[in-house]
Amino acid sequence: MARVTGIGGVFLRARDPKSLTEWYATHLGIKPTTYGVSFIWSECAEPEGAGKGMTAWSLFPVDTKYFGPGTQQMMVNYRVDDLDALLDQLRAADVEIDPKREDYDYGRFAWIVDPEGNRVELWQPLSG
User: Fold this and answer.
1) Which residue has the higher pLDDT, 113 or 47?
2) How many domains in the chain?
3) Which residues pair with 46 in a beta bridge?
4) Using CA atoms, how far apart are residues 90 and 69, in angstroms rounded to an integer?
5) 3-class secondary structure, 83
6) What domain range is 85 assigned to?
7) Are 125 and 104 spatial neighbours (Cβ–Cβ below 8 Å)?
8) Do the strands 119-125 and 102-104 form a parallel or antiparallel pair, or are they unpaired?
9) Whole-Å CA distances, 80 to 13, 29, 58, 77, 111
10) CATH number for 47
11) What is the rounded average pLDDT of the residues 53-60?
């Protein structure tokens, strides 16, 4: 049977795509080419057995507060290599940071808000 094998892309609406693209490049290091950004999974870039990437896909109830207080229809989760250092950089750049943190056996989480009010989830997987 044919089936989905992973997430092929994430697409966001933006009032000012050029400005928002620059913000993501400056603050999260997501630098696009003409057609967007391609992330290379770690199992492709690392030696055999060095690690695997994971993309989660979940549905939430229409009245969820997980995406923040607005009417945001989706939220992107970005894997990061050093959550504390990134949050320090974002704080220094006056990026809105949710004070809430969550720690699980599979990683650490934090949330920020981009200039257009989109809540963004940051996840540092735990090496194991």
Assistant:
1) 113
2) 1
3) none
4) 21
5) helix
6) 17-125
7) no
8) unpaired
9) 23, 10, 19, 9, 12
10) 3.10.180.10
11) 77
